[in-house]
Amino acid sequence: xxxxxxxxxxxxxxxxxxxFDAWMYHPQLPELVDLARQLPDATIILDHLGGPVxxxxxxxxxxxxxxxxxxxxxxxxxxxxxxxxVGGIGMAxxxxxxxxxxxxxSSDELVAAWGDEMRWCIDHFGPNRxxxxxxxxxxxxxxxxxxxxxxxxxxxxxxGYDAAETAALFHDTAARAYSI
Length: 180
Fold this sequence. Notes:
- By secondary structure, this protein is an alpha/beta fold.
- It has helices at about 5-15, 30-40, 60-75, 105-125, 145-160, 165-175, and strands at about 20, 45, 80-85, 130-135.
- Helices cover about 50% and strands about 10% of the residues.
- α2 packs parallel to α3.
- The radius of gyration is 16 Å and the shape is globular.
């Protein structure tokens, strides 16, 4: 993302009114901050909560990962050209290991595991720049589609978001960001 060629390409996308979906791991977020600052006319949509990794060298280090993840997420939240997809929480990459259990998690378990982080993101970016997302079929390893969307509904309720904010999270932000 730091190369001139990439930035020129993103500027072309922005000039055409197209968006850029950024899927990356949390250590890469500072690069996205720089990119978004350099190209304020580009609509950037960060996928999967900004990719807080919970496997490999990050396994068992969730609090440390979240402590590293929050500062660049706060910087991104201040940039009006960046939107956030709130989801991906069924992925094994996040370290929840739902796929290793004999039974899939309930929506309450998903909310217990990721609800605070989802609401933290929504509160920082604002509902008008956040959208709930499924990451199916990838999320299927961790939970069912229905359970995931019920977890999103519960997260919105626990967050105390009003009807307009909830509509933004479930539809309006995505429709506006993607011009659909």
